Amino acid sequence: MRKVKKVPKIDKKKFKKMFNDYMHELSEFDYTIKFDKKNQVIYQWFDYYWIEKTRFVFYLIVDDYIAGFAMVRKVEENMFEIAEFYILPEFRGNGNAMWFAQYALNNFDGNFEFSTMLTNGRAVNFWNKVSLQYNHKEKTDKEYKHWQIIK
Fold first, then answer.
1. Which tens digit of pLDDT belongs to each residue from 18-53?
2. CB burial class (10 A; 0-12, 13-18, 19+) of residue 11?
């Protein structure tokens, strides 16, 4: 059974470990990700997800296990962005990622945008499949592919 749970502030330390693991995996494709001397990701917006009312962080729960997370932010009126999205490797390939992406896109009242580096072929393929479920626009620049979901 799948469900979504807002990540409470009390879970921030536990969440940060998963987030750091995600960023290490992502750094294989994204040279802009940096780590400090303790091998912790440098991500200036992390704490803001528990401070600002325009930022949201959710766990994907599958059969009572934390299976991933999504970080969403309101960019402007009627526009949201999936800033970060992660499914733990052991929960991939079962439709969990698609279910969770659709949950995120369908549970906010507004349009969405998201992007990924072109070097991350698996993510490009995944977000292409997600975007085909919606009225969307896409563009590619030198390093990124960008999608916009129009509701």
1. 999 999 999 999 999 999 999 999 999 999 999 999
2. middle
* Domain interval for residue 140: 2-149
pLDDT in the model for residue 58: 98
Strands (E), 9-64: 55-62
SS3 132: coil
Residue partners of 41: CB distance under 8 A and separation at least 6: 19, 20, 23, 24, 33, 34, 35
Q: Output the domain CATH number for residue 125.
A: 3.40.630.30
**73 φ, ψ to 5°?**
-135, 145
Domain count of the chain?
A: 1
Nearest to 91 by CA among 58, 114, 123, 69: 69
Tell how strand 144-149 and strand 2-6 pair up: unpaired
pTM reported for the whole predicted model = 0.95
The answer to whether residues 86 and 104 touch, using CB atoms and an 8 Å cutoff, is no
H helices of the chain, where?
A: 12-26, 96-106, 121-131
